[in-house]
Amino acid sequence: MEHKTFRVPNIGCDGCVRTVENELSELEGVKTVKAELDSKMVTVEWDNPASWDVIVTTLEAIEYPPEA
Fold first, then answer.
1. Are 9 and 40 in contact (CB under 8 A)?
2. What pLDDT does residue 62 have?
3. Is residue 22 a contact partner of residue 58, using CB atoms and an 8 Å limit?
4. Which helix (H) or strand (E) holds 65?
């Protein structure tokens, strides 16, 4: 299992947290997602077929790109 913690600057409210968590949770292979409003940090754990590239693409599509 892989995992990554990263910052998403566009998180600004509880609705943003729910959107990020819900969208990433729907990806096949994603095991857990935890987004935090105060720190704007997101932690994701995944197995195949999910990948970091798929996670980034999904976040960009919903306008919550991870910080570079």
1. yes
2. 98
3. no
4. none
